[in-house]
Specification:
This protein is an alpha+beta fold and 279 residues long. The protein folds into two domains: 64 residues, Alpha-Beta Complex (Type Iii Antifreeze Protein Isoform Hplc 12), CATH 3.90.1210.10; 135 residues, no CATH class. The protein has five helices and nine strands. A five-stranded antiparallel beta sheet has the order 5-8-7-6-9. It has a two-stranded antiparallel ribbon with strand order 1-2.
Length: 279
């Protein structure tokens, strides 16, 4: 213990320790800090639910020290994926912020195949849209007041059961997700997006133009039960709009050539007499 009471010895030890730090530890630390690595960085603002494309991100070289766990380093990992949260320009992309599928309310927008369409209708007043209580997946009836200027309120047969895709506020954000605006207040719905057939979309467009459209909730629950309502509506649509009969193949292939019956003996100056009623 007397050795460490000697100021000269303590001074020498301090000098040796500082030399070890300067020439040993410090270079290793600087090397780890200066080591570069490539990561994927956001180059354009991405909103939650957007599909990430090549013009939204870029691979950049940054210092590898103290990078968060799960940071994405390869571009192929993010392209074609969907943002699970809003991403600002310059953000690193972490694995938890990516999704293989779009948000539930946008899923149909990425899988429409032509048999059904997405169409939005305006909620003219708070009451018209079930006081902001509608959610994605709900089954609703569309009620038309003063339908076709006839002074009666009806539920068009084409719109007995319609599925809600999303409810959107005037800002463009989905109002049924609990998102808040700058004033920390829940945004009120402005439009409702519905999944419909072409026949239904035409009726909805007319009602939107008239501005007298109300929505009433029919069912909220399991998707398989909701599908039963949509199936019943499809059956009504099929009755209202039966498929057009197929044209004769020969006539379709040769539209300018009349059939044998219409030709008769035309051209020879003779006409085929009509059959008698007794025959």
């Amino acid at each position: 213990m007397s050795l460490f009471k000697n100021r000269t010895v303590i001074g020498v030890l301090c000098i040796l320790l500082s030399l070890a730090i300067c020439f040993g530890v410090a270079p290793l630390f600087n090397k780890s800090v200066s080591q570069k690595t490539e990561i994927v960085r956001v180059t354009r603002e991405i909103r939650a639910g957007d599909m990430i494309t090549a013009d939204m991100v870029a691979v950049v070289e940054v210092g590898g020290y103290n990078l968060p766990d799960g940071v994405i380093r390869q571009l192929d990992t993010v392209l074609g994926k969907y943002a699970a949260a809003d991403l600002a320009v310059g953000d690193y992309i972490l694995a938890p912020k990516l999704s293989d599928t779009p948000a539930a309310e946008n899923a149909y927008l990425y899988s429409l195949d032509g048999t059904r369409q997405a169409i939005s209708v305006t909620i003219k007043s708070f009451a018209n849209g079930l006081s902001g209580k509608l959610q994605s997946g709900d089954i609703v009836k569309v009620i038309a007041a003063d339908y076709k200027k006839q002074g009666v309120t009806v539920i068009p047969p084409e719109l007995q059961y319609v599925e809600v895709i999303s409810v959107t506020a005037s800002s463009g954000y989905d109002a049924n997700t609990g998102e808040k605006n700058e004033d920390d207040e829940r945004e009120l719905p402005s439009t409702v997006t519905l999944l419909v057939t072409i026949e239904q979309s035409k009726v909805l467009a007319e009602l939107e133009a008239d501005g007298k459209l109300h929505l009433s909730l029919v069912y909220r629950g399991q998707p398989e039960n909701a599908a039963l309502f949509i199936g019943a509506q499809d059956a009504v649509i099929a009755e209202l709009y039966p498929p057009e009969p197929e044209e004769d193949e020969d006539s379709a292939d040769n539209p300018g050539v009349p059939s044998d019956e219409s030709v008769g003996t035309e051209g020879s100056g003779q006409q085929t007499p009509p059959e008698s009623e007794g025959e």
